[in-house]
Amino acid sequence: MTRPSDGLSYYRATANPAYDHPKLQGDHTCDVCVIGAGYTGLSAALELAQRGYDVIVLEAETVGWGASGRNGGQICTGVSCGMEKIEKVAGRDAAQQVFDIGEEAKSLIKTQVEAHEIECDLKWGYVHAAERASEVDELRHEIEYLQGFGAEGMTFLDKAGLEDQLGSTRYAAGLREAHGGHLHPLNYCLGLADAATKAGARIYEHSPATSVDTGASPSAKTEQGSVSANFMVVAGNAYLGKLVKPLYQRLMPCGSFILATEPLGENRARALIAGDEAVCNTNFIVDYYRLSADHRMLFGGRCSYSTLEPKDLGAFMRPRMTAVFPQLADVKIDYAWGGYIGITMNRIPDVGRIGDRVYYAQGYSGQGVALSGMCGKLMAEAIAGQAERFDVMAQFKHQPFPGGPLRTPALVLGMLYYRLRDALS
Ligand SMILES: Cc1cc2nc3c(=O)[nH]c(=O)nc-3n(C[C@H](O)[C@H](O)[C@H](O)COP(=O)(O)OP(=O)(O)OC[C@H]3O[C@@H](n4cnc5c(N)ncnc54)[C@H](O)[C@@H]3O)c2cc1C
C-alpha cells in the first residue's frame, strides 16, 4: 500500500521533546500487550498501567506515527455517523449511553492534558458550517436533537452571524459548539506516551508485530522478539494491514490531506477565524480547518480510497482552501502531509473482543481524536473486569467491505458519486 506522505508534517516540525523508546529484543511476558501507539493504544496502556497492570506497547514505527500524529486536531461531538443513526440502529437508551461516552471522550482529553501537563495547544470551540441554504433547517434540527441528549453550549449562527466569526462568504449558516475544540495532535499523543511510560508501561518503537496469536494465550512476534500476555489490545486501526484478518476486512483506509500555510500573523489569522475555533463543513467530503498556535491556517480535506497520493500535496489542497478563503491566494504553503483514516461500512466505530482475551477498537471514521482515547479507556476497564461501558460500544454489528480485493475501485466510484452530489445539491 502506498503510504500517504511520510514526509515532514507541521506537527513533526513542532513536536515537543519526548522519551526515546527502544526496539523490542528477546522474549517478554506481561499482563497486557498493546499493538499500536496512537491514542487508542496509549490511552489503554495509560489506564491499565495506572491500575497496576504490567503493559507492553509495540509500535511499528514511532509514537504517533499513524493518524494520531497527523490528523486535523479537531475534537468533535458524538460519532461520525451521527446520533440519529445510532438511535435508529440501537434505540433511544443505547443512543443516550453512546452520547454520554462521546461527551466523556472530550472531557477525558481535558483531564489527561491537565493531569499530565501535556503542552498541546488545547482550545475549546467548534463551528459546523453549512454551504447550502437547504441545510439551514437541518442545523436547527440537529441542535434541538442533540439538546434532547443533554448537549450544552450549542448555538445556531445565521449567515450574518457566521460571517462575523469566519472571514468567508461561502456558507449559509453554522452551528457553534462550546464543548468541541482542537489541539496539536502529535504533542497530545507524545504526552500520552510519556504519561503511560511514567505510569510503568514499556513502549517499544520500530517493533512491528509481524504475527499475533489471538487465542486463549495471546502473543505477538516481532522481528527480534516476542511478547506473551494475559490480554491483548489491538489498536493499529487503519495502519494495521492484514495482521488480524477480520479487522482488516471491516476497515477501509481512506487518505486525507492537510496543508499548513506560512505564519499569517495574529491579525490576519483572526480575520479568518475570529474565535479561534475548529471549523468543519457539513459536506460528505469534508473540509476541516483551524489556526495553529503560531497563526498558520491548517486546512484539511479530501478523501482518497485509491491509496495514491498526489505528487504536490500543497498544490492539490490549495484550491480547496482558496475556495473558502480567496484572500489566502498569495500565501506560501510551508507543509503538506496526509494520513489514513479508518472507515467502517456504517461509520460506527468497530469495537469488540476476539475470544475472551483480545480486545480491539478501530474505525472511528474521521472522528477519532476524542473517541479513540475513550475506547482505549473502555478496553482497559473491560480488562479490569468492568465491561458495561465497553459493551455499549461493542454492541454494533459490522460488515466486511464488499468486493474483497476489488473493493478499492468500487469505493473510488462511490466517492465520485458523493463528490458530484456535494457539487450539485
Ligand atoms: C489526515 C487525518 C485527519 C484527521 N482529522 C481528524 C480530526 O480532525 N478529528 C478527529 O476526530 N479525527 C481525525 N482523524 C482521525 C483520527 O486521527 C483517528 O481516528 C485516531 O487518531 C485513531 O487513533 P488510533 O490510535 O486508533 O490509530 P493510529 O493513530 O493510526 O495508531 C495506530 C498505530 O498502530 C501502529 N501499528 C499498526 N500496525 C502495527 C503492528 N503490526 N505492530 C505495531 N504497531 C502497529 C501504527 O504505526 C500506528 O502508530 C484524522 C485522521 C487523519 C489521517
List keywords for this structure.
425 residues, alpha/beta, FAD/NAD(P)-binding domain, 9-stranded mixed beta sheet, 8-stranded mixed beta sheet, globular, binds flavin-adenine dinucleotide
Named at the architecture level, the CATH assignment is 3-Layer(bba) Sandwich
Number of strands: 17
The CATH H-level homologous superfamily: FAD/NAD(P)-binding domain
* Helical residues, percent: 25-40%
Give the C-level CATH assignment.
Alpha Beta
The topology string of helices and strands comes to HEHEEHHEHEHEHEEEEHEHEEEHEEEHHH
- Shape category: globular
Uncertain segments: none
Structural class call reads alpha/beta
Here the CATH topology equals FAD/NAD(P)-binding domain
Give the percentage of residues in beta strands: 15-25%
- Overall tally of structural domains: 1
Largest sheet: 9 strands, mixed
Distance between the termini: 34 Å
In DSSP terms (H or I, runs of 4 or more residues), the helix count works out at: 13
Mean pLDDT: 93
* Gyration radius, in Å: 21 Å
Bound molecules: flavin-adenine dinucleotide
Write the layout of secondary structure elements.
Layout: H1 10-13, E1 26-35, H2 39-50, E2 55-58, E3 74-75, H3 83-90, H4 92-115, E4 123-130, H5 136-147, E5 154-157, H6 159-165, E6 173-182, H7 185-198, E7 202-204, E8 211-213, E9 219-222, E10 225-234, H8 245-249, E11 252-261, H9 266-272, E12 278-281, E13 287-291, E14 297-304, H10 313-324, E15 333-343, E16 350-354, E17 358-362, H11 371-383, H12 388-394, H13 407-424
Parallel strand pairs: 1-2, 1-10, 2-7, 4-12, 10-17
Antiparallel strand pairs: 3-6, 4-6, 5-6, 8-9, 9-10, 11-14, 11-15, 12-13, 13-14, 16-17
Helix pairs in contact: 2-7, 2-11, 3-4, 4-11, 11-12
The chain binds flavin-adenine dinucleotide.
Flavin-adenine dinucleotide is lined by residues 35-41, 58-61, 65-68, 70-74, 76, 208-209, 235-240, 243, 256, 258, 288, 300, 338-341, 364, 366-369, 372.
